[in-house]
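Onboarding guide, step 5: your first structure request.
Type a short instruction followed by the sequence, for example:

Predict the 3D structure of this protein.
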Amino acid sequence: AKRRGSKGKFEQAHRGTIFLDEIGEIPYQMQVALLRIIEERKVTPIGGTREVPLDIRIITATHRDLKDLLQKGKIREDLYYRLHVYPVKIPPLRKRIEDIPDLFRHYQQQHEWKAEFPPIFFKRLQEYHWPGNVRELFNTFERLRVLFPDGGLIDPSQYSAVLDGLDWKSGAPSEEDRLTFRERVQKQTMMEALQKTNGNVSEAAKLAGIPRSTFYKRLRKYNL
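The system replies with structure tokens like these:
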């Protein structure tokens, strides 16, 4: 609101992208204001009278079911359809545990933390069900960084207490949850091939483009 104050977030995002997190939580009045910005592609800064044109891309995220909010009247229908143009559903962390090492490297880069952990560290992280998803994972990294701010090689005897403190007993992952994304795709492909060939393994292997010996191994692996 200051005459020479900094630009608002939308004005800063001109000719770029603005990310709005937890879009399902915004109050009604803010929904009205956001809808106006999307439709008119311009904004009037607080305390100002001049309209500023906007050329922006809007990306939103939420952990809520927007269709459910729409049915309950908690989100405007016109805003919903303005935002729901190209939905991308991100699976929970327990369904993409293969991402954990990359997420760790991303966290390290963000915080310039040069800690090294043995492979068993990541294996154990991938065995946990992560009910709090990436936020819980990063919270775990944060605790480790507080304990070992100087980084270096951290052995199991040093970090075990932190991992033991996770809620291992609550909501243990199913066998399906333990599969990586690639394994789930493999399993689904095999199931569809078996269904189309009425259970004929040789024909299903051909249809799926998988060597028969490999197909048999995966049958045992996925308990099909």
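Each response can be followed by summary notes, for example: The first strand starts at residue 16 and ends at 20.
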